[in-house]
Structures are given as structure tokens and as C-alpha cells.
């Protein structure tokens, strides 16, 4: 990501990258040290999904209040929005290196606060600190790597940073699984994130500032010294000249556009090309979030429990599959995005996502309608005080099944011999749950026993496979290409904020939606919104594959029309003639 985006790299560039890194290990050290920021970003995205299951166990108020769970998850996103905004200013004012160091400090503090949190509000505070660090790292790490690495392998090194993000997500699921039987479970899961931040902080102390930033600050000799370490002798003079020309061009552009944000925004929105590019950029970023991807990443084990897998460790083990598929999909994207085009990949991805969301709607609907029924006899055998109050007061207890029990905020104690036979609907509480499990029964409070559970996991996996190579990375690539050069930072920044804000809205409302609409209704809602997103991409987002920045500007200046409208206009012209 540069200015909130991923720089594409083709197969040839990756080959050149490995060759260059072998010849100049300094480049590898520089990219790896800065790339830990991507690892931290990915780790934080994934770790909360498993930690939340155990936080609910330790704090009854979190278990009982859906909004508290959503807040614990989403406050890191809210912090990241602020961190990304402040990070852009810090990058320009103090440099890339100090910004990464500050991000590490914030991340480390947040990890410690969460690890030793005595109450849920302290966890939320720690999540905000971590969010600040994530937001700053997401802006700064790719920028630092791109400015301090050779131009010919820049795309592949920044793409490696994107791979580290998905790698961090996969690692978080592995660590979650490793600590399921350890005392303190979620404290270890959240606290261990401080270790990579600690390592990166000391590695960054040994690395230099970005040569481009130093040049802009007229610290020319320091910048040249760094470039001599990065480039071979026969290339360094030419690169110094290119850097000097680039910085002078940027300064001339600033004089035209203006240095203060108000002047830049005024000129940008007065430019028709920028406005059309921004509409396309925001469309793909918002569509990326409203397909519901971060509900899967943030709440994956919870969704697996909805599907009928009561065991927390089983839920996390199955969630590991989705995370691994996400990482594989990121690699696949690098090899296909330049072959098949951005627009086509996104539209194919959206069709696949909508299909998977509809399939998940059907699966969860069938699971709900075929949930085991409630036996009044089974329910009362645990004692009147243990029976679910809503079930006791219900006039239509004959219609109650496990899903009715779970929706009433109670727990379903499955039949001892067969989970699919009528079971007990009990008041939710640790003591009563202990009574149920003490009789070697399975206790369900997020989902119900279901023969359709494996299908839910299958379609979640297919959902990730169709998301990652298309809607996962392509929207960022589009945003790195769609804006006029002078407004690229502004456009990318606005689009990134729209992405983070959509992420916040989706993650803050998912559990509330599942309570109000049910799992099936929630996935159907996402399918409907995704269909609107597909239509918007078709009509508003042009293909930028193989086009120079100048050609993209010319296309936007003329106005983009999809093939359907071009054919319609051609027919209208013929009939008029």
C-alpha cells in the first residue's frame, strides 16, 4: 500500500527482486524491518476473533451485551482511522522513521494494556491504542519501503508488505489456537502482539530515514549516502538525478496546487478528472467492505459457532482455514491482476461473493428451521430455576426449537445420546452451563446442532477464495492508478478513509444484525448490498489495465461508459440517422 494502496508487481519483477536482494542484503533488512508493520496490522485484524470468545467467558457483561462485543472489536478500526489521518501529517512533518517508531510504541502500550486489563473498558482503551498504531503503520510502512528501495523492485517489495498483512492474520489464528488451553488465554493472545512491535522498534533504530524525505528537507548528503547503500555504483548517480528531479517536480506541483489542505481540496474537487476518479475509487473501497469481509475476519470463530460448532477450539481451528485461504488468494492476485484486468477481476469476484452469500443464507436458514426441538421434560429436569425464563412464560412452547432458545438469550443443552434429538432450554449462566456439561452434554449458546454446519464452513472458504484475489487487493490497485498525479495523495487518502469508515460501520453492527435478522437474514442483506456494489462497479469503474497515468486521465476526461451503454448509444445514433 502506498497512499493507502497496493503497488502491483508482475512475475518478472519478483524474479528481479530475489536477484537484487541476494546481491544487496541491506535492502532485505530494510524491507523486512519496515514490513513488520504489515505483520502487526494483520495480526491485530485476526487475533480479536478468537480472543473475543474467551473475553466473553471472563466478563459476563461482555457476554450479555452485544454492543460491548462489537465495541471491543471495532474500536481498533476507529483508532486506525485517526491513526491513518495523523500518520499522514507525521510522515511529512517528522519523517517516516519516527512515525514507524511511534506506531510501535502505541502498539506495544496497547498490547500491554489489553493483556493486564481488569475490566472491559480497559480492553477497549487498549484496542484504541493498538488502532492508532495500526493506522499509522498501514500508511507509513509501505511508504517507507517504496521510497527506500530500488525502483525496479519497488512493486514487489510493497506487495510483500501486503503478503505480510495476510501472513499476520494467519499467524494470529495459529497463536489463538496455541493458547486455548493456557491460563489467561485471551490475555496471551492480545499481549503477545507487543513482541513484534518491540522487535521492530529496535530494528528501525538501526535503519536510516527515507532518502526522499531527507531530500525534501534539503539533507542531500544523508540521502545520497543511503542511496549508495541501496544502488550499485553504476546506477546510483542516475538515481540521485531522478530523485532530485522528482522532488523538484513535487515542489513545483505544490506551488500550483497549494501547500495547505484547504487549497488542495478546493483545486482537487474543481477538477472533473479527479471527481470522476474519486467516484470510482470510493465505489470500489466501500464495495470491498460492504461484501462483509471483515465480519468474517473479525468474527470468524463466532460465525462457525453460529453454524453449530459449540467448541471454541474447534471453531478457531476451522477459522484457520479461511485465514490460510485469504493468504493464498493474495499471492494468486499478483499473478492475475495484470493478465485479466482490474475491472473484470472485481466483477468476477463480486459475482462469486454474492453467490456464496446467497448460499450461506440458504444454509443458515435451513439450519435454523431444522434445529432440534425443545423438550419441556428435559428442560425441567435441571430444576425450575434453571429453565429459561422466556421458555417458561411462552404460550407456544410446542413451536420452540434450539434457535428460539438461543434468540431468547438462553442456552441449549443437547440430548445426551444424540445432539439432534429434543434437548433442554436453560437459563444462560456458568453454573447452569456446568450442570449441562457435567452430564457429558454439549451446551450451545451461539448456534445450534446442525447437519448443515460443514456446508457453512465450506461456503465461508469459497467466499474467501473469491474475495481475496479480486475484491481483496484490486480496489487498492485501482486507487493507486485512477487519480491525476498531482492529486493522488488526496484521492487515495479520501478513499482510504471511506474504506476504514465502512469497515467500522460493518464491524460495529454485525452482531446486532444477527440478533435482529438472524444469521441467514444478515448474509442475505450483505448479498443485496453486494449486488448494488456490482452494479455500481459496472457503471462507474473503468478498466485501467495497461494504461499509462496520462491515458487514464484522458479516459476520465472523456467520461467512462460501459459496453452496454456504448452499444445503446450506437443504436440510438443509427436509428436517428
UniProtKB/TrEMBL annotation:
Its main location: membrane. Keywords: Membrane, Transmembrane, Transmembrane helix, Transport. The keyword Cytoplasm does not apply. It is found in: Membrane. SUPFAM superfamilies: MFS general substrate transporter. It comes from the Eukaryota. Pfam families: Sugar_tr. InterPro entries: MFS_dom (IPR020846), MFS_sugar_transport-like (IPR005828), MFS_trans_sf (IPR036259), Myo-inositol_Transporter (IPR050814), Sugar/inositol_transpt (IPR003663), Sugar_transporter_CS (IPR005829). This is Major facilitator superfamily (MFS) profile domain-containing protein. It comes from Dipteronia dyeriana.
